[in-house]
Write a structure and sequence with these properties.
GO molecular function, one term: oxidoreductase activity, acting on a sulfur group of donors, disulfide as acceptor
Largest sheet: 3 strands, mixed
Structural class: mainly alpha
Number of strands: 5
Pfam family, one: GILT
Keywords: Glycoprotein, Signal
Helix content: 40-55%
Order of helices and strands: HEHEEEHHHHHEHHH
Number of helices: 10
Family: Belongs to the GILT family.
Distance between the termini: 59 Å
Radius of gyration: 20 Å
Protein name: GILT-like protein 1
Length: 234
C-alpha cells in the first residue's frame, strides 16, 4: 500500500470519526439526588436507553442541583436543598463522582462515561431507602467497578464538594428558561416543555427525533411503531 493510500485511509478514518462525534446528541439532565421523579426518569428511561444501542449517539451531562439554593459568605458556601440536608450531601456525592470517576487501562470494557452512568443509576435506584441508614455511595462504587470511592467521599465532605455543587447551581441558574420542574431534560442545549414531558415517559422515542441518519435500529423500530399507532388512530 502506497504512502498516499495510507494517508488517504487515515484521513478517511478521521473523517468518519469526526462524523460520528459530530452526530452525538448533547443531552443535559438537571436533577436532584433524592427526587423520586428524577430517580424514575434516570433508572427507567435514561439508563436502559443509553446502556443499549443509543450509547454511541449521546453526549450526556449530569447537573445534580435542581431546585436547591446556595448562599455564599466569604469563602463559605451553604445549601438549602429541595428534599432536605441529606439531598445536599447526595448532590455533592453526585457532583464529586462526575468530577473524579476515571476509567482504568486494565478495564477497557468501561469508559469514564459508562462508569459514571452506572454509578449514578445505582444511587438513584436506591432512592431514599437506605435500610442501614448508610448512604449507598460505597456500595454503588463497589458494585459498579468504581475504585476511587474514598476520593469521591473526601470530596463530598470537604470544600471541594461545596464548590462543585455551587458550579452545578450556577449552571442551573444560567438556563435560558428558569428551571420549574425536576428533572429537566435539555436536547441540544434547548429546553422545550413538550419535549421534556415526552422524554419523561418515552425517552428513546424522543431522543430518536434528534438522531441523524443512519439511525440505530431501535430508532427505526420506534419510528415504525409510532407510524403504526398513528395509522390506527386515523
Amino acid at each position: 500500500m502506497s504512502h498516499k493510500l495510507i494517508g488517504a485511509c487515515l484521513l478517511l478514518s478521521c473523517l468518519v470519526a469526526a462524523v460520528h462525534s459530530a452526530a452525538k446528541v448533547p443531552i443535559a439532565i438537571y436533577y436532584e439526588s433524592l427526587c423520586p421523579d428524577s430517580a424514575k426518569f434516570i433508572t427507567e428511561q435514561l439508563y436502559p436507553a443509553v446502556k443499549g444501542e443509543l450509547r454511541d449517539v449521546v453526549d450526556l451531562t449530569f447537573v445534580p442541583f435542581g431546585k436547591s439554593q446556595f448562599f455564599t459568605q466569604g469563602s463559605e458556601v451553604t445549601f438549602t436543598c429541595h428534599h432536605g440536608p441529606n439531598e445536599c450531601y447526595g448532590n455533592k456525592v453526585h457532583a464529586c463522582a462526575i468530577e473524579h470517576i476515571q476509567a482504568n487501562s486494565y478495564q477497557i470494557e468501561y469508559t469514564r462515561e459508562s462508569l459514571t452512568l452506572d454509578f449514578i443509576n445505582c444511587l438513584m435506584r436506591a432512592g431514599k431507602n437506605f435500610p442501614d441508614n448508610v448512604y449507598p455511595g460505597q456500595r454503588c462504587a463497589t458494585e459498579n467497578h468504581i475504585n476511587n470511592w474514598e476520593n469521591i467521599k473526601t470530596c463530598a465532605n470537604t470544600t471541594e464538594g461545596s464548590q462543585l455543587l455551587r458550579k452545578a447551581g450556577e449552571a442551573t441558574g444560567r438556563l435560558k428558561e428558569p428551571l420549574t420542574s425536576v428533572p429537566s431534560v435539555l436536547f441540544n442545549e434547548q429546553f422545550e416543555k413538550k419535549v421534556n414531558d415526552r422524554a419523561q415517559v418515552n425517552f428513546i422515542g424522543t431522543l430518536c427525533q434528534y438522531v441523524s441518519a443512519p439511525q440505530p435500529r431501535i430508532c427505526a423500530q420506534h419510528n415504525a411503531a409510532a407510524a403504526t399507532g398513528l395509522a390506527s388512530a386515523n
